[in-house]
């Protein structure tokens, strides 16, 4: 570990992932440990055109006794190398090796026996697929998804038949740019140089986003189709999103209190496909990254997250709750059933005229 760009107490470790068709590939694991040793850890995974800078999220978990980790995926943020196409992947499974290694470091090297995975937007889709693929390994103990990217925010005709047609051409020229809308409204709503309250590195998270490539689009499309077919994430899941979607094309104050990237109804529709234990929480006034919403909404998000974690991801070794017996299983009821059976048997043995 070395000191991170955020400065101490943040440290970072570079994960060597070999090479691909563009050259060397790395991912970056950021760590912030609490002052008191903990066996519990959180692993945060960012969204598209994003990287980890949300230190208040780390504060929340560290103050509750968790060690905090964040993973800048290959070709994102700290992991983006000069020769690489920003944020590009041909398949979402390409990210599984860095997730596997991050989990190994957290559990085996740093000695944590409980892991909560938190994914935002595209990170929410990636971590859902990874948690499903690793369900039999006991790696993940809980999953928190902040506005996960479960579907494209475009009309049905585009996101189903037309994207399928476009996707079938991705093998010929996966790096071809597509003429799609930018993230300008969302970027303006976040950055303090414009209409927001947050400061972050614009070379890693540009105001207008990075170009969308056809290969990346097809990777997302296939990942979403796998999710919609149904996953088997076998741990508690909290899916959180706003109550409203922003529909404007230019700037409006509504962008501060809505999801200006995804359609929140898609999130709610597909969340139950994750697995059998999914909780859905919606926040009025929430932005796309709920943790970057206005102060009052942020506080509500963190309160709800804290309650969910306490209820569904308690410390390892917490005794199971005593469940009172059902009425029919109580001693009194059992005695009554026995008497009824005896009476029924006696009547059956009584001769009739």
Describe the protein's architecture and organization.
Helix content is 32%, strand content 16%. It contains 9 helices and 9 strands. It has a 9-stranded mixed beta sheet, sandwiched between helices. The protein is globular and about 85 Å long.
Topology (SSEs and partners):
Layout: E1 2-3, E2 11-20, E3 23-32, E4 40-45, H1 55-63, E5 67-72, H2 96-109, E6 114-120, H3 122-133, E7 142-146, H4 156-167, H5 184-190, H6 214-229, E8 237-242, H7 264-270, E9 278-283, H8 295-312, H9 331-349
Overall geometry comes to: globular
Largest sheet: 9 strands, mixed
Number of helices: 9
Radius of gyration: 24 Å
Quaternary = single chain
- Estimated helix fraction: 25-40%
The neighbouring-strand order within the major sheet is 1-2-3-5-4-6-7-8-9
* Integer average pLDDT: 93
Judged by helices, strands and strand pairing, the structural class is alpha/beta
Alpha carbon gap, first and last residue: 93 Å
Runs with pLDDT <50, length 5+? none
Please tag this protein with its features.
9 helices, 9-stranded mixed sheet, globular, single chain, alpha/beta, 353 residues
Short overview:
With 353 residues, this protein is of the alpha/beta class. It is built from nine helices and nine strands. The mean pLDDT is 93.
């Amino acid at each position: 570990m070395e000191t991170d760009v955020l400065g101490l107490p943040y440290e970072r470790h570079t994960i060597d992932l070999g090479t691909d068709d563009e050259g060397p590939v790395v991912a970056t694991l950021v760590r912030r440990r609490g002052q008191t040793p903990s066996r519990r850890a959180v692993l945060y995974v960012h969204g598209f055109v994003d990287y980890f800078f949300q230190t208040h999220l780390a504060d929340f978990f560290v103050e509750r006794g968790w060690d905090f980790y964040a993973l800048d995926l290959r070709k994102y943020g700290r992991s983006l190398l000069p020769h690489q196409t920003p944020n590009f992947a041909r398949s979402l499974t390409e990210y599984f090796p860095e997730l596997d290694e991050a989990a190994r470091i957290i559990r085996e090297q740093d000695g944590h026996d409980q892991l909560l995975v938190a994914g935002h937007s595209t990170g929410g889709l990636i971590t859902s697929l990874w948690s499903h693929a690793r369900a039999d390994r006991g790696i993940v103990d809980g999953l928190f998804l902040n506005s996960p990217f479960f579907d494209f925010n475009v009309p049905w005709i585009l996101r189903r038949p037309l994207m399928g047609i476009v996707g079938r051409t991705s093998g010929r020229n996966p790096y071809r740019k597509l003429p799609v809308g930018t993230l300008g409204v969302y970027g303006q709503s976040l950055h303090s140089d414009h209409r927001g309250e947050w400061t972050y590195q614009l070379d890693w998270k540009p105001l207008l986003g990075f170009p969308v490539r056809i290969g990346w689009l097809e990777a997302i499309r296939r990942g979403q189709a796998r999710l919609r077919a149904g996953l088997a994430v076998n741990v508690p899941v909290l899916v959180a999103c706003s109550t409203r979607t922003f529909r404007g094309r230019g700037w409006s104050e509504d962008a501060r209190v809505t999801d200006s990237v995804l359609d929140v109804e898609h999130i709610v529709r597909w969340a139950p496909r994750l697995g059998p234990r999914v909780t859905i929480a919606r926040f009025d006034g929430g932005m796309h990254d709920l943790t970057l919403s206005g102060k009052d909404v942020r506080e509500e998000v963190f309160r709800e997250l804290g309650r969910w974690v306490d209820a569904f991801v308690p410390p390892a070794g917490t005794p199971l709750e005593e469940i009172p017996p059902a009425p029919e299983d109580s001693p009194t009821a059992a005695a009554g059933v026995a008497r009824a059976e005896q009476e029924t048997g006696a009547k059956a043995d009584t001769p009739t005229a």
